[in-house]
Amino acid sequence: MSALENTLRNRMADVEARIQKACDRAGRVRSEVTLVAVTKTVSADVARALAGLGVVHLGENRPQELWKKAAELPDDVRWHLIGHLQRNKIERTLPLVHLIHSVDSVRLLASLEEAAAGRSTPLPFLLEVNASREANKGGFAPEALPGILSQLNSLQNLQLQGLMTMAAFEEDAERCRPTFRELREVRDRLRGELAPVHTLQHLSMGMSNDFPVAIEEGATLVRIGTALFDGMAKDHSAT
Ligand SMILES: *Cc1c(COP(=O)(O)O)cnc(C)c1O
To answer: Could you tell me the distance, in angstroms and rounded to a whole number, from the CA of residue 213 to the centre of ligand 1?
Structure first.
């Protein structure tokens, strides 16, 4: 086993143990939480080594980087787009992605609806919500969601599977809890307002710094980069 594989294996074991403990504290089963390994800071070689350890869900925040890694990694990887999608990159991105977490405007929603026409199943997506209300963050303000209900209900080609948020960075992750709780409450309020096609089962929340708290508050997708890849520069080769 290479030194890289060994390090990744140890980091995975640590993250996995922390996910399991958070599930235990919350009375949840491990299978309710999917680890999305965020590979944006590492090379395709490192991402491939992690996939080789059985991590199927990988996330990228830039469409071009996702295209590049998707071309280099095995087809069974499920790619998650977790950052801004420019409308001119939709066409090339859609065939590659398992789930888009970061739908952050009505304009993007309309463009995706158009691009997804003719699919045999609706395109799954999450709305990005700025639950921490930081001025430098994208996404819909929680207060803005009631205003787009009619747009959501008129979608023919898309399926809203839930919400995504990023908490503010806090030394004490406990302070992120209100943000995660709010995302869950916003999701719960959307249920009942939306057509049944919009399943709303996912809460994409929790990063390296705060994922145990997010799991306690109901996260179904945790997006973890640093805890797995810290110190592995992008030019790191898997030798
Ligand atoms: C980079 C990134 C992550 C992973 O963050 P870490 O703190 O490195 O775990 C999660 N979500 C989004 C949207 C990101 O851009």
So the answer is: 15
Tell me which residue has its CA closest to atom 11 in ligand 1: 223
Banded pLDDT at 39 (limits 50, 70, 90): very high
- Phi–psi pair at 162, nearest 5 degrees: 150, -160
Chain Cα centroid distance, residue 10 = 23
Which H or E run includes 221? strand 221-224
Global pTM reads 0.96
**Distance (Å, whole) CA 227 – CA 239:** 21
- pLDDT mean over 74-102: 98
Tell me how far the alpha carbon of residue 154 lies from the centroid of ligand 1, in angstroms.
32
User: Cβ(213)–Cβ(175) under 8 Å?
Assistant: no
Over the stretch 111-142, which tens digit does the pLDDT of each residue have? Answer: 999 999 999 999 999 999 999 999 889 999 99
Q: Is the CB of 206 under 6 A from ligand 1?
A: no
What does the alpha-carbon distance between residue 79 and residue 59 come to, in Å, rounded to a whole number?
6
**Sign (positive or negative) of CA dihedral 234, 70, 112, 225:** negative
pLDDT of residue 149: 97
Q: How far is the CA of 8 from the centre of ligand 1 (A)?
A: 17
